[in-house]
Amino acid sequence: MNIKFHGAARTVTGSCHLLTLDNGLNVLLDCGMFQGMGVETDDLNEKFGFDPSSIDFLLLSHAHIDHTGLIPKLVKEGFKGKIVCTPATKDLTEILLYDSAEIQTYEIEYKNKKRSLRNLPPYEPLFTSEHVQLSLNLFETIDYDQLTELSEGLQLLFINTGHLIGSAGIYLKITEQGKENTLFYSGDIGRYRSVLLKPPAEFPQANHIIMESTYGDKHHDIKFNTIEKLHKWIKNICIENGGQLIIPAFSVGRTQEVLYALNQLSLEKRLPEIPYFVDSPLSSKATGVIKKYTDQFNDRLQQVLSIDDDPFDFPGLKYIDNVEDSKRLTESTLPCVIISASGTADAGRVRHHINSCISKENCGVLLVGYCSPNSLGGQLLIGTKEVEIFNDPCAVLCEVGQIKGMSAHADTDDLLKFISCQDPEQVKSIYLVHGEYSVQQAFAKRLQLKGYKNVEIPGQHQSYIIVSNLIAKRA
């Protein structure tokens, strides 16, 4: 068996890992879009590093765009195999991919108007809505904890990882030349103290593990009060300064956590009486999908549902669907809170809102999740005084902050707890993905102290060969 890492290799985006079995079967684990990589982003999304038509199965860990966003491009370039995931992941991926196609069309039209004035050639989208539809025809779903034979010598089991509705670790039993290997791919791992979801489940013993490491050197502050900090920011920016508070948030997962926190303030009669906007058609659809899978909510949220039939809604909340209303909101100067995608502020309508407010001292941008250093959100967080938005320089005069406690990723202790169900002596290799290199190096040392002997940190397009449970690195 050969494992080759085509994304999320020493970075936190673009998850894409290719298994090639001895019988020639090609299994792709996720097919994510690179986001927030600065000038490298377009080039990384342009080339897969493998032939899409050669892939037999695409197995999805969850619906986030950095794990699913290049599926239509994969199909566009010849993939005709099966796409396998949980039911919730299919539902969320459908709306995410259509939204991505629409955003690309909108953003490229906007950029091409400026490029035409400079006599530059136009950009082309990575894919269109037609390619999304072709992709959806290839989906098949399997529930959690159901061992399923995909092909002779290849069995699949999905394990709940608590990161997002439908998120799953991918456990594979692979039989080659009469010998069985087991491989587990974690996808993204959730927190054991998630605001919304059940904690991650244990997974069966594996010989080889591909594991995310986003917060491999950090501890989340379990005492951090998200609701209080959110209330403080709204009061400061909107009430005292009379400005607008922009909250970049991914439409699936993070937006619902923000809405849940605002709903809690509303139930406590402490939510300031100003307009609250979710400027993202996707967020409305995603919230609807998430409400279908209440069985995946944690015990605390189950109790809330007994007294509040919609924990993501409250007086004063409005959803913005069409582009014209979004433009009018961008032009408005009335105090309000605007929640809009994307979470790293690198794409979508949120860039227009930030562009409108970034040079106003009475406004604020509040990040509520991880932002890679090269993303617009990452640049704002490190205190950059001038950023580029839509190819124009913008002075940063607004207030910038972050609510760190809302991360949906496991921290270093959660990651160790997640893997504690394994016997280190039986784990022949661990491959750390989805993390910054320095973070992965620190987490690798923690794993080694726990008895895991072969911890690798793959580079982009690097491959490894596994023969009878022995590992040989290949450049």
Automatic annotation (TrEMBL):
Source taxon at top rank: Bacteria
Signal peptide location: none
Gene Ontology MF: a single term: hydrolase activity
Keyword DNA-binding appears in the UniProt entry: no
SMART domains from the UniProt entry: Beta-Casp, Lactamase_B
Domain named Beta-Casp: residues: 255-380
Span of domain Metallo-beta-lactamase: 13-231
Keywords: Hydrolase
Pfam families: Beta-Casp (PF10996), Lactamase_B (PF00753), RMMBL (PF07521)
UniProt name for this protein: Metallo-beta-lactamase family protein
